[in-house]
């Protein structure tokens, strides 16, 4: 496959949620509202990802295969939860969609959003029309994306002014409403990022990401550092955002949060989507079909509390066949070849679609 080099992304200092001050003020037309249940044709995808791969070129010529051949669509009003163990490629996938990969990365494939191929777009297009406007991001490390020398109020106000055009009293009110939406306490608005706990920084980042009303929101671990009540509150706010017609890619370790919010679930393992399925079927009956996905659920304390034995493979040294075979109790000789994602599962011997015993 041909990999193209990553662009030299100049991220605006105040984070990805808002474009820099040079961005055009022209509003991006909203995507169509979610499909009326009475109509037959499904709404056009807000995001259409095909065979997305990301490679990191390391010293000595070695490649890290962080993401391989990911394909999925996201429609207006839909939430797709992207789950999988640490290091499986979730954040790299999100960074690729925003043109925020480091220089040693190359991408292949396509990611269409609003007629733009996010993987091929130049930095100017990404900065002016994509980040914050078409695609919002709740970054995984919010404190790193907040400007250290400015208060939360000042950063939020600038983003609200940039993206909504509000001024004066309306601007003040919209700024406070934006904070409230992400459960960021009004009496902390005048704090600087270093004066915030991890959970508060997370909420500030979520508030910033919601302002632009982008048709597509990427939320990378938006509930990290929050206690259960706030997890639920954040998740419910993100769900409302999707219900209002936005597409949401929710990256999370938290399977309970994924179950609460998602319409569909994508499970990644060693850089590949190994299961892509309806959330209700996944969390309920018949349950996941891929043995890894089933193992993830079985590892939960409220389920079998049985961890998957072994460790994921090195992404710089992947086997030719199924990357999960070494840890899988169902491995056969067929697993020496790479299983394609077929009917939502990339496995040579998936669990049958029957109720679990
Ligand atoms: N700049 C880089 N250079 C080389 N390898 C990288 C780089 N950035 C990420 N990786 C590798 O890509 C893989 C995927 O990383 P990624 O951050 O997407 O994982 P993740 O699924 O988001 O994990 P977590 O749940 O811990 O956030 C990891 O093995 C990581 O080490
Ligand atoms: Ni991550």
Number of domains: 1
Name the ligand types: adenosine-5'-triphosphate, nickel (II) ion
Strand order of the largest sheet: 7-8-9-4-10-11
Discrete helix count: 10
Describe the structure.
27% of the residues lie in helices and 19% in strands. The protein contains 10 helices and 11 strands. The termini are far apart. Helix 4 packs parallel to helix 6 (198-211) and helix 5 crosses helix 6 (198-211). The model is unreliable at 8-35 (pLDDT under 50). The protein is globular, with a radius of gyration of 20 Å. It is of the alpha/beta class. A hairpin with a 2-residue loop joins strand 10 (264-269) and strand 11. Nickel (II) ion is lined by residues 90-91, 140, 220. GO terms for molecular function: ATP binding. Residues 49-295 form the ABC transporter domain. Keywords: ATP-binding, Cell membrane, Ion transport, Membrane, Nickel, Nickel transport, Nucleotide-binding, Translocase, Transport.
Blueprint (SSEs and pairs):
Elements: E1 4-5, E2 47-57, E3 63-74, E4 79-83, H1 90-97, E5 105-113, E6 116-117, H2 123-130, E7 135-138, H3 142-145, H4 152-164, H5 168-181, H6 198-211, E8 216-220, H7 228-243, E9 247-251, H8 255-261, E10 264-269, E11 272-278, H9 279-283, H10 291-298
Parallel strand pairs: 4-9, 4-10, 7-8, 8-9
Antiparallel strand pairs: 1-5, 2-3, 2-5, 5-6, 10-11
The site of nickel (II) ion has 4 residues, from helix 1.
């Amino acid at each position: 496959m041909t990999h193209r080099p990553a662009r030299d992304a100049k991220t605006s200092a105040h984070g990805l949620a808002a474009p820099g001050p040079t961005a055009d003020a022209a509003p991006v037309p909203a995507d169509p509202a979610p499909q009326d249940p009475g109509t037959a044709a499904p709404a056009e995808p807000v995001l259409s990802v095909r065979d997305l791969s990301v490679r990191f070129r390391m010293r000595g010529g070695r490649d890290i295969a962080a993401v391989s051949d990911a394909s999925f669509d996201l429609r207006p009003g839909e939430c797709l939860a992207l789950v999988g163990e640490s290091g499986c490629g979730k954040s790299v996938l999100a960074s690729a969609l925003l043109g925020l990969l480091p220089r040693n990365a190359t991408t292949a494939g396509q990611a269409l959003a609003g007629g733009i191929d996010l993987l091929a777009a130049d930095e100017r297009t990404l900065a002016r029309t994509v980040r914050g406007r078409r695609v919002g991001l709740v970054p995984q490390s919010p404190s790193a994306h907040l400007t250290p020398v400015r208060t939360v109020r000042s950063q939020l106000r600038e983003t609200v002014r940039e993206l909504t055009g509000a001024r004066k009293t309306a601007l003040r009110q919209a700024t406070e409403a934006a904070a409230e939406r992400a459960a960021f306490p009004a009496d902390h608005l005048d704090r600087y990022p270093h004066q915030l706990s991890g959970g508060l920084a997370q909420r500030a980042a979520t508030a910033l990401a919601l302002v632009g009303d982008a048709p597509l929101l990427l939320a990378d671990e938006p509930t990290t550092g929050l206690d259960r009540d706030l997890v639920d509150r954040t998740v419910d706010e993100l769900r409302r955002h999707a219900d209002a017609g936005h597409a949401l890619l929710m990256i999370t370790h938290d399977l309970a949060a994924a179950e609460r919010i998602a319409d569909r679930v994508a499970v990644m393992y060693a850089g590949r989507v190994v299961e892509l399925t309806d959330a209700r079927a996944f969390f309920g009956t018949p349950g996941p079909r891929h043995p890894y996905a089933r193992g993830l659920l079985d590892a939960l304390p409220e389920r079998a509390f049985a961890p998957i034995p072994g460790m994921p493979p090195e992404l710089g040294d992947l086997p030719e066949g199924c990357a999960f075979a070494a840890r899988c109790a169902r491995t056969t000789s067929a697993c020496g070849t790479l299983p394609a994602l077929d009917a939502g599962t990339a496995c040579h011997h998936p669990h049958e679609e029957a109720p679990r015993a």
